[in-house]
């Protein structure tokens, strides 16, 4: 019996291949966008994990020089003799590759090349006789080292691991190390660190600059986009399934009348949907892989450029990823179909003989109330919600509430227009358009979510860009930045720059615990560079004058939000020094708290710390001359000098690549929404004949009816676009002012981009017009006999 | 006794008065009965109760000795598959299946499919040239003949025909009824024909009139 029922149900798809295509493509595209974004995230996170594994970042405590300068290898030996279980690490660039030198016998297990693809001789590595481990693509770029390269897929991208001796030779730094990894279990009898080697600093785990933390913002936004895209797809699937069930109501009733039990029928329909979901999910995962592979190089470039995080540009097919893609397709289908199945289960055997107008299943009043409740819940979350989860709940409530508001709002607007219409055709046009709203509502909601996602994400990314560019102007105000290796070089730089630079600004920094949190303290010289360029979120009057006099400190937004250090609050800096907050500045992308004091105060608090960097103010035309002079007279390598203009240009170029990613996702989402409209129009076309035939019979030509249908779709798309703009701006605000603050502790200012919105609106109208063109053309070619058939009741 | 109704009462929630007010009726195997009555007299309701499509509020509806009233959905579905065949006024063919598939459908559902029997019905009802067509490509009379073939293919014990000729012209209606009577007679099943038409009712050996929810 099950097979017979299944064959009858399947016959519907054979007779309605377009509907089957809608369902499969809608679900496949939704899964593709979701799994594509997830694949990018998974790939990037795997690269971070690999980097952390290779470099030991975040997992272990580290010992390094207080001023960050290299350490002599003897310090390592001294610590080992004093009972410390530590392992030395040296790092540096060797051509295009980051070389990491380890001491294989003392390094913690997770640090080394855990697995090799074959051909690797771990014994040779352990004995220090010379091997170099890296991914295959990294090995291909590595300049000749004189030792064999071994493929090790676990190593971070663009990184090679080797024995510390070989690394010192390749980096031309004999007898030097950069830091020491501290093993978790240390003997209690070891001598204190300050006693064995003064001037060293013990950094706790997670204090080593975990790149994943910095990039979380990027991934959070990508995930939010993936969710939005999936929501758009879900609306399409919901529409397609709803329509399929609606059109099969009569068949279901007949099957039941012929003796098919209801439970079996529901079960068979659920299985049928599950099979379709698996097929569509498989296609979607494959498409997602293609999308991810196409976008990953740009994402990798963005992450590398913005955050210095190395991400492999190559995709790996991970089982967890494609399994989760299939699971989300199944869950999405189940969510979309649950209402339809429930409605079928409750359908009386003798009721609903004919397919109701698709519209009838959508009761406006209940949905309007639900929409209102969701929007109120979103507002309540915005005001009283705490934590990231509350932020996401608010986003969800805002989106679903906004989408559900659309049909009643459109109906209201069209009814109002209908009342004002005088001419009969105009009156019919408004009335007929209103009648189409329920049937098109799911597609229009999909379009609205797609447009809102576009507006929201574009506003967020563009605001991020504007803010970041302003932030770069503030932070990179000096024309040239020079990294310093030792006090002698610092003196040489000051001497060489004295006659040619307008100002030499030392940048002093140290780590400090403030208000119970690890923070960075900066010492800056009182100079117009800071006064002219720095923007405050909030500040006291005469902030720079008071700072210069040592009357207070500046804190970054993260410090202000997390430690509650508002203007006027006292900040304890150690050694009995406590000063009030004079200003709060934006510090985007930095997860840690930061405090700024005057150079004099810094030097009194940290007399041993030397500047690690100098900012040099000079006429932009003289930058090259000054660089040459510093190279020749102070022996500063070119790689230690950063040209501000070049950094800004590079940053902007990176942003353009970020835009490539978001633009591609935007276009894909919009295309899916356009596809939803096309499918809705095509499937509704058959149901439209009884509505159009009387008007045709009364004297409107088929061509005019088709033109009016096209106009109707454009009008609905335009109205949807207007509502979507409002929702998109609300979404952008929620992402910038709520989710970002809850997740990362800093708030991005929101800017508006009217031209971008106009362009998006035109693009949406184009998508709607393209979608409506074919159904309109088909209508204009409908044979009169088919229209007459409506009156003969023989359709 | 093939069918036995005792004091059947049925009221719909929307209406204050009962549609059926104590209907009792017996029908033997091979017996043919015409049920007439005005619109709203309860003819279709009575047919739905006998066919297990609906349940009585009170009384007994027994088909081949099985009381349908206490049966659940699955039990009533089994009765519809195995014992009772219903021919609807609106045909209720499955639009996505061909004529041939529609004819075989109920017999397959009841696991009683016999290709030779299908062939006989197809020839007898003149459907041979339409086997690969879909219902929407047939006229009303042709669709009703497909519905009759579908109902008779599993050889039910009792055939219920709800205004089977209501959508057909007089000549076609006569032809369809003749064929139906012949085929039911061949299988030895019972037949209850609900109709408005006194002319058609007169062609059946036994006639009952339903008025105000009671048999007259």
TrEMBL record, chain A:
<keyword id="KW-0472">Membrane</keyword>
<feature type="transmembrane region" description="Helical">
    <location>
        <begin position="222"/>
        <end position="245"/>
    </location>
</feature>
<feature type="transmembrane region" description="Helical">
    <location>
        <begin position="265"/>
        <end position="296"/>
    </location>
</feature>
<feature type="transmembrane region" description="Helical">
    <location>
        <begin position="757"/>
        <end position="777"/>
    </location>
</feature>
<feature type="domain" description="ABC3 transporter permease C-terminal">
    <location>
        <begin position="224"/>
        <end position="345"/>
    </location>
</feature>
<dbReference type="InterPro" id="IPR038766">
    <property type="entry name" value="Membrane_comp_ABC_pdt"/>
</dbReference>
<dbReference type="InterPro" id="IPR003838">
    <property type="entry name" value="ABC3_permease_C"/>
</dbReference>
<feature type="transmembrane region" description="Helical">
    <location>
        <begin position="667"/>
        <end position="689"/>
    </location>
</feature>
<protein>
    <submittedName>
        <fullName>Putative ABC transport system permease protein</fullName>
    </submittedName>
</protein>
<feature type="transmembrane region" description="Helical">
    <location>
        <begin position="710"/>
        <end position="737"/>
    </location>
</feature>
<dbReference type="Pfam" id="PF02687">
    <property type="entry name" value="FtsX"/>
</dbReference>
<feature type="domain" description="ABC3 transporter permease C-terminal">
    <location>
        <begin position="666"/>
        <end position="784"/>
    </location>
</feature>
<dbReference type="GO" id="GO:0005886">
    <property type="term" value="C:plasma membrane"/>
</dbReference>
<keyword id="KW-0812">Transmembrane</keyword>
<keyword id="KW-1003">Cell membrane</keyword>
<feature type="transmembrane region" description="Helical">
    <location>
        <begin position="321"/>
        <end position="345"/>
    </location>
</feature>
<feature type="transmembrane region" description="Helical">
    <location>
        <begin position="366"/>
        <end position="384"/>
    </location>
</feature>
<feature type="transmembrane region" description="Helical">
    <location>
        <begin position="390"/>
        <end position="416"/>
    </location>
</feature>
<keyword id="KW-1133">Transmembrane helix</keyword>
<feature type="transmembrane region" description="Helical">
    <location>
        <begin position="437"/>
        <end position="457"/>
    </location>
</feature>
Automatic annotation (TrEMBL), chain B:
<dbReference type="InterPro" id="IPR017911">
    <property type="entry name" value="MacB-like_ATP-bd"/>
</dbReference>
<dbReference type="InterPro" id="IPR003439">
    <property type="entry name" value="ABC_transporter-like_ATP-bd"/>
</dbReference>
<keyword id="KW-0547">Nucleotide-binding</keyword>
<protein>
    <submittedName>
        <fullName>Putative ABC transport system ATP-binding protein</fullName>
    </submittedName>
</protein>
<dbReference type="InterPro" id="IPR003593">
    <property type="entry name" value="AAA+_ATPase"/>
</dbReference>
<dbReference type="InterPro" id="IPR017871">
    <property type="entry name" value="ABC_transporter-like_CS"/>
</dbReference>
<dbReference type="InterPro" id="IPR015854">
    <property type="entry name" value="ABC_transpr_LolD-like"/>
</dbReference>
<dbReference type="GO" id="GO:0022857">
    <property type="term" value="F:transmembrane transporter activity"/>
</dbReference>
<dbReference type="Pfam" id="PF00005">
    <property type="entry name" value="ABC_tran"/>
</dbReference>
<keyword id="KW-0067">ATP-binding</keyword>
<dbReference type="GO" id="GO:0005886">
    <property type="term" value="C:plasma membrane"/>
</dbReference>
<feature type="domain" description="ABC transporter">
    <location>
        <begin position="3"/>
        <end position="216"/>
    </location>
</feature>
<dbReference type="GO" id="GO:0005524">
    <property type="term" value="F:ATP binding"/>
</dbReference>
<keyword id="KW-0813">Transport</keyword>
<dbReference type="GO" id="GO:0016887">
    <property type="term" value="F:ATP hydrolysis activity"/>
</dbReference>
<dbReference type="InterPro" id="IPR027417">
    <property type="entry name" value="P-loop_NTPase"/>
</dbReference>
